Amino acid sequence: MVLFVKRRTLCIRALFTIGIFFLCVLFQNALIHPFLKTSVDFPGGGLCACDKCVTDLNDTDWFFTRFNPTVPFLLNRRNSALRPDVYRWWKGLQRETFNVSYTEVVDQMFSLFPDEEHYSDAGPDRCRTCAVVGNSGNLLRSNYGPLIDLHDVVIRINRGPTKGYEKDVGSKTTHRILYPESAVDLENSTHLVLLPFKIKDMRWLVSAFTARQITRTYIRVRSTVNANKDKVMIIHPEFIKYVYESWLQKHGKYPSTGFITLIFALHVCDQVDVFGFGATDAGIWHHYFDRSLTYFNRGSHGGDFENKTINELLLLNKISIHKGW
Ligand code: C5P
């Protein structure tokens, strides 16, 4: 009898827990979907003024269980405090001991660079078209240059040059996503967007615009870059974790720069066109500008899973991909 009562109590507890779990899921959807739906009733039926908007709602749940519009994508003083789980995860990516105060570095950064809330202007009147330009060798002989330059925003990644490759990759660069080890000089009109994989990357950014004392991370890095200080932006560490967990479901150790850039574009643009993504048939990441070859599945990134996710975004019409040759 006692055993029966115990079992019944256990069953009731299990049912209660499952009930709470489903309520949480329902509640989460109830929070996120209406937020997105607020402007869906505008004429044209979209959340933006383009023909097709990234956040159009006529899709399966696949997109909206991954896309979280409330995640901070660019850092500023007000959103800079990191939740303990974010701080721990981010710290886990770093090869150095974390003996520098994060809040001090944030302070230094935002006394130098714009402390703004960027891209909070989404709405039914906005149609921001973006080209995300990766570094794949498939850009060579593509003649995509003029098409890429037609976009309002052209985001390039790491070292990918334009000079000498204009016909295939275009000449406009509104944003360049980089980290110290991949830094290059920028035009005055280009936003330098730092992707901080470690706190030293933030210190390097400050140093590059001031005393230039940091010349090494885990390899030698440039002590400075030519770039417009007033156009500097910094990706939020929480955004990197979000891309890893929500979009990559923890495949690999952390997402590739290209993949983070693509998801970043989904958050700041209304229409996303992807160029220069794609390995060779042998699974090698080749570049259009040098002879470096990396097996994309052997490093820290979940290359295959990134590709699958990108393909799903394509199938759902969230992005278009220009595959080149
Ligand atoms: O090689 P790198 O990291 O500078 O390239 C930037 C991004 O371009 C990569 O993170 C990847 O997403 C994309 N890429 C690609 N196929 C290649 C080379 C690069 O998809 N062959």
The overall number of domains is 2
Give the strand order of the largest sheet, numbering strands 1, 2, ... along the chain: 5-4-3-2-1-6-9
Number of DSSP E strands: 9
Give the ligands present.
Answer: cytidine-5'-monophosphate
User: Which class of the largest domain in CATH terms?
Assistant: Alpha Beta
CA gyration radius, whole angstroms: 22 Å
Number of helices: 10
For the terminal residues, how far apart are their CA atoms? 74 Å
| CATH topology title of the largest domain | sialyltransferase cstii, chain A
Q: What's the CATH architecture name of the largest domain?
A: Alpha-Beta Complex
Major sheet, described briefly? 7 strands, parallel
Q: Unreliable stretches, pLDDT < 50, 5 or more residues?
A: 1-5, 18-45
What series of H and E elements makes up the topology?
HHHHEHEHEEHEHHEEEHE
| Helix residue percentage | 25-40%
What descriptors fit this protein?
325 residues; alpha/beta; sialyltransferase cstii, chain A; two-stranded antiparallel ribbon; 11% strand; disordered N terminus; binds cytidine-5'-monophosphate
